[in-house]
Amino acid sequence: MAAAAALGPWRAAAPRRRRAAARRRQAEEAGDPETDPGVVLRRLREAEEDLLISDFWSSALETVTRCLWEQRGQLKAPVGTLPEALGNLHLNSSPDEPDVGPGRSPGQALVTGAGHVACVCYGLGNFATCITARIQLAFLLLLLEHCGIPRSRCCVYDPLFSQLEVEVLHTLGVTVLPENEEGKRSVGATPTVFYLPHCGTALYNNLLWSNWSAEALARVVLIGNSFHGLEQRLLTRILQKNYPYVAKILAGLEELELPQTPQYADTFNDTSVHWFPAQKLERLSTDVWACREEPGYQDCEDLEIIRKTPAGPRPPS
User: Rounded distance, CA 246 to CA 231, Å?
Assistant: First the structure.
């Protein structure tokens, strides 16, 4: 009896070992997304193909297009004033025109020639193994293509990127930033689309602080968490104390929600396109613009961003 009892578990385990070996063989044949860049690229292409034929994509592109149209209109200025703004960005037709050319949907009004527009993406996550992050990256790549923004003018960063993911991004032709900027990037004279899918509120706050002037914010289009949603979820005193630049800009922005569809309910929920109309920015008080203190977050709980690692002491020379 004892011998039979001892043999029992071994006999039960044998099929499991065979199943595990079969799974390993299948994984080897299909490739491992954690080690094989070809697998990641193939799955990324599949995510793009699924996005392109979805109802979500056409509506989302139209939403982004509309905001870029509005921004382009306010940046038009005589040569020598605003630095050519969206200069080479041209649109074949306005979002209200039904006829945008054969084989092109109304959401595809933005086309080639946006060579002077930049794009910055923070917080994608591990797209090699996470399907949500992979779909968000697919959205970014399609957006660059349909807006005519060269991939070389798109910078991406996430402190969680693996070496494999960095390799894949280089293959895709985008620029991987070498260090954690914590969202503190100034647009300067360049109109810039920022894409921050489901990022921590501090990242948006840092981005606003880095561009805290009416002239700079007029050049920003921001795709990320709904600012009005943040206003509703956070207590007013917490928002004003921990994320003051988000709190102060609420009166100076326009926001359009991305469409919600069951297929991408978890991927793009609570995501909006934000732009900053010059007229609204000019109506903000001088006191709003006067405070330019860099965010610190010393007493902020649930910060939800990975901070920049402080540089260590230099070795003696």
Answer: 9
Tokens of 170: 């280089």
CA 270/CA 273 separation, integer angstroms:
10
What's the alpha-carbon Rg for the chain, to the nearest Å?
23
Which residues make Cβ contacts (< 8 Å) with residue 219, sequence separation at least 6? Answer: 71, 75, 85, 187, 189, 190, 191, 192, 211
Helix and strand tally (H, E) in the chain?
A: 12, 7
Contact between residue 93 and residue 109 where contact means Cβ atoms under 8 Å apart = yes
C-alpha span between 287 and 163 (Å, rounded) = 45
Q: Where do the domains of the chain lie?
A: 33-95+105-289
Backbone angles phi, psi at 116, to 5 degrees: -100, 5
* Strand order across the 154-157 sheet: 175-176, 154-157, 118-122, 192-196, 220-225, 271-275, 254-257
Q: Is the alpha carbon torsion for 130, 118, 215, 280 positive or negative?
A: negative
DSSP letter, residue 159:
T
3-state DSSP assignment of residue 176: strand
DSSP 8-class letter at 218: T
The rounded distance, in Å, linking the Cα atoms of 300 and 317 is: 38
| The pLDDT of residue 310 | 63
Count the neighbouring beta carbons within 10 Å of the beta carbon of residue 15.
9
Among 243, 245, 273, 246, which residue's Cα sits nearest to residue 258?
A: 273
Q: If you average pLDDT over residues 126-152, what whole number do you get?
A: 96
**What is the assigned CATH class of domain 33-95+105-289?**
alpha beta
pLDDT tens-digit series, residues 191-224? 999 999 999 999 999 999 999 999 999 999 999 9
Read off φ and ψ for residue 171, nearest 5 degrees. Answer: -60, -35
d(CA 140, CA 196): 10
Round to whole Å and give the CA distance between 222 and 191. Answer: 11
Strand (E) or helix (H) holding 154: strand 154-157
